[in-house]
């Protein structure tokens, strides 16, 4: 079960929509709003959600924060400033792991986000089990709500074992160039360079060839890349021959 995202008194529909979009990016779909300033539903929120309609359509509205938290077993309050209360403060990576543990035990977890301008008040933070904060620059700690939601939802997704296989696509699986392919490439390049008297003075040719081969060998070449490069060399050779004639 994914965490519930709770926005307390969000002011702009656009911010609600972009937060919903950030949630959808990482598979989190349960959004709750406490007294949204401009009411609900919001066409501005839907437009800003950029097709995250499945999040917008199931969004729940509450009159009080206590009601929004009533069915949750463990809650984090997000804040960028220190509070005068003895609550454990967690990094988002650690918080995501703790939430996973709570969910594994059958618990339901949530994350509180405050108002755009000044966040959560102390009476709201005190309702949470722990505090979650981001390692931002203390000289500029202000984050857009959607940005904060995005970071935390990302860490939630990564904490579930998807870190190794979470990318939507991978490097193409293509045949790699063999050592034989590379030797032919070396020889072809050196032949072309000989034709234009690149290796000067002649007594330095061996050292220059060795340096070139070292440079070329640093790449993890695919067969197609070697063929393409040899085609480039052949084209330059033909041009040189035409110019010579």
Number of DSSP E strands: 7
Arrangement of strands in the largest sheet = 3-2-1-6-4-7-5
What order do the helices and strands follow?
A: EHEHHEHEEHEHEHHHH
User: How would you classify the quaternary structure?
Assistant: single chain
Helix segment tally = 10
Q: How confident is the prediction overall: mean pLDDT? A: 90
What is the CA-atom radius of gyration, in angstroms?
A: 29 Å
Largest sheet: 7 strands, parallel
Question: What descriptive keywords fit this protein?
Answer:
single chain, 245 residues, alpha/beta, 7-stranded parallel beta sheet, 7 strands, 47% helix, elongated
Molecular structure report:
- This protein has 245 residues and is of the alpha/beta class.
- The chain has helices spanning 13-25, 43-48, 53-57, 65-69, 92-104, 122-125, 145-162, 179-195, 205-217, 223-244, and strands spanning 4-8, 31-34, 60-62, 74-78, 89-90, 109-113, 130-132.
- The protein has a seven-stranded parallel sheet.
- The longest helix has 22 residues, at 223-244.
- The radius of gyration is 29 Å and the shape is elongated.
Helices and strands, with pairings:
Layout: E1 4-8, H1 13-25, E2 31-34, H2 43-48, H3 53-57, E3 60-62, H4 65-69, E4 74-78, E5 89-90, H5 92-104, E6 109-113, H6 122-125, E7 130-132, H7 145-162, H8 179-195, H9 205-217, H10 223-244
């Amino acid at each position: 079960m994914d965490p519930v995202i709770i926005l307390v008194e969000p002011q702009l529909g656009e911010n609600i929509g972009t937060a919903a979009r950030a949630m959808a990016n990482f598979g989190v779909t349960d959004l709750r709003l406490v007294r949204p300033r401009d009411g609900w539903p919001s066409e501005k929120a839907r437009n800003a959600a950029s097709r995250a309609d499945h999040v917008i359509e199931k969004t729940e509205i509450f009159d009080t924060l206590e009601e929004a938290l009533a069915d949750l077993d463990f809650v984090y309050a997000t804040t960028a400033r220190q509070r005068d209360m003895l609550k454990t403060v967690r990094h988002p990576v650690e918080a995501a792991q703790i939430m996973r543990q709570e969910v594994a035990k059958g618990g339901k977890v949530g994350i509180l986000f405050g108002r755009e301008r000044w966040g959560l008040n102390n009476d709201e933070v005190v309702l949470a089990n722990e505090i979650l904060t981001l390692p931002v620059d203390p000289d500029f700690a202000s984050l857009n709500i959607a940005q904060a939601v995005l970071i935390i939802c990302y860490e939630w997704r990564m904490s579930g074992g998807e870190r190794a296989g979470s990318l939507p696509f991978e490097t193409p699986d293509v045949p790699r160039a063999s050592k034989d392919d590379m030797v032919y490439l070396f020889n072809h390049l050196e032949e072309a360079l000989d034709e234009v008297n690149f290796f000067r003075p002649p007594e330095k040719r061996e050292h220059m060839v060795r340096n070139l081969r070292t440079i070329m060998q640093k790449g993890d070449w695919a067969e197609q890349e070697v063929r393409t490069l040899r085609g480039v060399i052949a084209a330059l050779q033909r041009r040189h021959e035409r110019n010579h004639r």
